[in-house]
Amino acid sequence: MADRLAKRAATEDIGEIVYDKIPRETIITEEENRLTKWQEQWTSSTIVVISKLFFPYIKEGMKTMIPISAEFTAMVTGHGLTRSYLHRFKFIPNSTCPCRIIEQTINHIILNCTQLENERRIIQNAIFRTADTWPPLFEQLTRKHIKTFTKFVRSIDFTAL
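and the corresponding structure tokens:
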């Protein structure tokens, strides 16, 4: 019977094909395999070091509503706006933060810059209210504290730093 039906399907126009649907489980398995491969590539990459601090897991990052702005993007990638980045490409003569403590990196801006003490105090208090500790892992800033972190980033006047 199967042979007859197959022959009929191959030789006759029988209308709508009802057997072309891919099972849901097959799609899920294929996507999980792709996601696993993507995660392996992401984890082993040596060129997205700062981004991996904020987004170590692809699947979690895909769930996050990421605010798109130049400042936020610069903060989670380390590309642009910091003196260390601008100095690296010879746009400015040195990478020292105006607070004169150390090179102005993303870590310095978030954790140590004395010119951002007020902004940092606000984010610290918001994080303490959630019973988390300071400093959090950077991935917690973009996963659990994304709104607070976004406010912190928006509050920074990068032109003054």
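(Above: one complete record from the training split.) Residues 50-155 form one domain.
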